[in-house]
Design a protein that fits this description.
By secondary structure, the chain is α+β, with helices and mostly antiparallel strands. It has one helix spanning 51-67, and strands at 11-15, 20-24, 29-34, 41-46. It has one domain (11-69). The protein is built from one helix and four strands.
Length: 78
């Protein structure tokens, strides 16, 4: 998966400890993990570039999760 496009710049790193964290070459990242107090998924995104870039990353994760409901309950929005 490294080098693949993810909402823009290629993926730099994927970490699968306590969920899945994807970091792109521009330093933007998203973490998908199980909630610690509810039976659902939590998504956290950040970008050193801009708020708009962070929203692009969230939109990419959101699209994948909504198309694959078998991964678990999910209802987050920004």
């Amino acid at each position: 998966m490294h080098g693949a496009d993810f909402a823009g710049p290629p993926i730099r790193d994927v970490v699968t400890v306590h969920g899945v964290r994807v970091t792109t070459r521009d330093g933007s990242w998203a973490l998908v993990r199980a909630s610690s107090n509810k039976p659902e998924l939590v998504v956290v995104c950040e970008s050193p570039i801009s708020d708009a870039r962070m929203r692009e990353v969230f939109a990419a994760i959101d699209a994948v999760l909504r198309l694959n409901p078998e991964v678990g309950a999910y209802n987050q929005t920004i």
